[in-house]
Recover the amino acids of this structure.
């Protein structure tokens, strides 16, 4: 599942995000959402979140 819809992501959701500095390489970082930072219901590049370890990035994949 992709991370473009805010309704699909809640704190505690396990996701893969791309950090700002990794956008060119596409390197993904796995973690658990602590806070949603995007207020709009959708975003074409992925909803921006803060992970529990403090990393900020856009959700590219939602894990089950």
């Amino acid at each position: 599942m992709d991370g473009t819809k805010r309704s699909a992501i809640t704190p505690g959701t396990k996701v893969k995000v791309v950090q700002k500095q990794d956008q060119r390489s596409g390197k993904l970082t796995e973690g658990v959402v602590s806070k949603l930072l995007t207020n709009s219901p959708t975003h074409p590049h992925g909803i921006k979140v803060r992970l529990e370890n403090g990393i900020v990035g856009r959700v590219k994949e939602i894990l089950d």
In short: The mean pLDDT is 97. The chain has one domain: 6-62. Residues 6-62 form a domain with the SH3 type barrels. fold (CATH 2.30.30). The first strand starts at residue 14 and ends at 18.
